[in-house]
Each structure stands twice: as structure tokens, then as C-alpha cells.
Amino acid sequence: MLREASVLAINGGSSSIKFALYQIGEPPKRGCFGKVDRIGLDGTNLSYNDSSRNRIISSKIGVSDHKAAANFLIDWLEKQIDFASVMAVGHRIVNGGQKYSQPQQVTRELLDELRRISPYDPDHLPSEIEVVGLFSERFQDLLQVACFDTAFHRDMPRVARILPIPRSFDAKGIQRYGFHGLSYEFLMEELAREAGAEAAQGRVVLAHLGNGASLVAVRGGKSIDTSMGFTPAAGFPMSTRSGDLDPGLVWYLARTEQMTARQFHQMVNYQSGLLGISETSSDMRDLLQREAGDIRAAEAINLFCYQVKKWIGAFSAALGGLNTLVFAGGIGENAPEVRTRICSGLEFLGLELDEARNAANGPVISIDGSKTTVRVIHTDEELMIAKAVFRILGNVDQTKL
């Protein structure tokens, strides 16, 4: 059978596995796509596109952890696509540590290094490594490629990477890594395509606002600083993550609440942010519906918007000004009211929203003539994984696949 140039992109998160099949082209053509989400929670769900009826199909599935979810997904995919036509599988890996700053063919050496740095991010790396292993076991002759979320930030200035703790820890890899790199890489490509190379080379702040959320300051097309740090829990409040906290809380809660390190980790990653403040939901859509009658929901939204605004201001200072602000992610792309609140008060940066464009989630939501252009771009991490894999395929002896 003639092998078509198609790749499978796998985007594993702490509670989900997204997937998309792409055929080679410019741009690559997406076919089957979907996700398994709520892994480890009640109501684990598979959703995917039904191209014959042009709609999304969803169904509950009975799995309990990442390994079961990945095995279920592989079994399901084997019924949907011809794996003889798949030339490689690309995997999102949250952290490449100090060693990996470019997409890499998966080898035993790479997996050993990822296992070594798994304590950097115990909520993502172990499950991602497990998913890579399962695909490798099931398709032993299929090329596997690792694409790193930290790669976009690896050229950050040292002043932005080093943490203010004893220098000896820096040599052990404890530094600011930054995340959402695949999303940011896509956004910069789209910015150049939509606004031109000059805009992409200017002073840019990208805001990836979803369940996980971060900002990056970009100048000359390069990351110069980002809000997430050594782990994705740093920065501003997210759906269930706290963002930056006074480190003195660790010792205080250990003494007064007998809170262990594990319990503190659980709290700041899964019980804080929008969920912790609202006490009702981690979903911005729910909170916007409830805020008029629930002060807790209102305070959660206000805190989120206030903190994002502060980071935009800080990064504008680091950049020496601001030319373009880009919103992306589930909240950034679909919540006009949140964008309005974030941008309100940033007029001193030459930023002014057009209410009608913003309400319509238009591609440009600032007024004509605004000194700072504000854009909404729909991000696509799976596409960036596919492009990286196609590049690697171009350097691999195809006869060995």
C-alpha cells in the first residue's frame, strides 16, 4: 500500500489527551481530530469530529487513568484511521529541561532524560512519557517525535530565567522554563501572516488564557520573559492553579494547618485560582453567569482580570513599550467581557478596544488608529506538532519507516 504523508499529533495534558491527524500540504490538512478529557475524574469523555455529518460527537467512556485512556484512544483510532498511512506520531511534552530545545525523535536516551526530570512537573511528564511508551509499544516501527512546550522560551535572557534562590540550584536545572510554547509558536506565525513581519518583529505580548494560562513578552520574534516559571503553577491565577504566592505560606500552613508538601502541591494546582476564590467553579463561563448574584464569582473574575492586566503592564515595561497584544486560549478567544476588563485602564499604553469588534470576537478588536493593536487569534498546538514532525520526516530515511 502506498504510504500517504500523514502524521498523528498527540497533545497530552494533566487530565486530557487531544489528537489530530494531518496530511502533508501547505498548510497541512487536518482530518480526524478530538480529545479524551476529564481523565481521572467522573465522566471521562471522548469527543471527535464526524466529518460525514459535520458535527462533534461526544460519549462517556469507562476509564480511570492516563494509561487506560491512552489504550482506549489507540484502540479507537485503529478503527478510525489506517495506521499503515501514518508515517509518525508527534507528542507534546511539557518540559524538555536544559537538554532539549528542539523537537526530537524519541529514543531510549530521550525517555531516560525525561524520566530523570519528571520531578520538575509530576502532573504532566509521567503521564506524557507513559503515552509515548504505549504508542511505541503498539506501533514499534512507527517514528515517535517529542515536541517541547518549553522550547519557545529557551533563548530567554538569563536575567529572566534565573530564580532568586541559592545559585547551586541553578546548576540542577531549577530555573524559569515557561510553558505554552507550542501555542506561542503558532501565534507568532499567525501574527506574521495576518499583520506582516514588521508586526511580528515588534513589541508583542501574547496572552494564552485557558484552564492553564500564561503571558509571554516577545521582541524580535523571541521570548524575553514569561509568567509561568519552574512549573506551570506560577504566574497569575488560573482555573484551579494559584499563580504566584508568598513562599512564606508554605511554612505558615505547615505550622498552623499541619499541611504537608504534597497537600500544598495539591492545593495550589487543583483547589485554587478561580475555583478556590469562587468555591463553585473553575470555568469562567459559569462564573460570568453567576457573578451578578454571587460575590465569590465576581471576586474570582475580578482577581483574574486584575492580575492579567498587571502582567501586561510589567511585560510592556520589560519590552520598552507595546505594539501588539494577542488574546488566545479558551477564555482569551471567547470571553469579550474578560478582554474588556483586562484592557480597561491600559489606555496609557495606547490601547483602545472597539466594543463591536470585541463583542464579535473579531480578529482585530482595537479601534482603527490604536497605537497598540489588539488581536484575537485561535491557537492550534496540534498543528505545530504536525509541522515539527513533517520537518523531522524530511531528515529521516523514509525507507526505514
How would you summarize what this structure contains?
The protein has 401 residues and is α/β, with parallel strands linked by helices. The protein is 37% helix and 20% strand.
Task: Describe the SSE topology.
Blueprint: E1 6-12, E2 16-23, E3 29-37, E4 45-50, E5 55-60, H1 66-80, E6 86-93, E7 104-105, H2 108-116, H3 125-138, E8 143-148, H4 158-161, H5 181-195, H6 197-200, E9 203-209, E10 213-219, E11 222-226, H7 248-256, H8 261-270, H9 273-278, H10 284-290, H11 295-319, E12 324-328, H12 329-334, H13 336-343, H14 355-359, E13 373-376, H15 381-393
Parallel strand pairs: 1-6, 6-8, 9-12, 12-13
Antiparallel strand pairs: 1-2, 2-3, 3-4, 4-5, 7-8, 9-10, 10-11
Helix pairs in contact: 1-3, 5-15, 10-11, 11-13
- Top CATH class of the largest domain: Alpha Beta
Biggest sheet, open or closed, and with what strands and sense?
A: 8 strands, mixed
Radius of gyration: 21 Å
* Count of DSSP H/I helices: 15
Q: What portion of residues is helical? A: 25-40%
Distance between the termini: 14 Å
CATH superfamily of the largest domain: ATPase, nucleotide binding domain
Task: Domain count, please report it.
Answer: 2
Strand-pairing-aware structural class: alpha/beta
Strand content: 15-25%
CATH architecture term of the largest domain: 2-Layer Sandwich
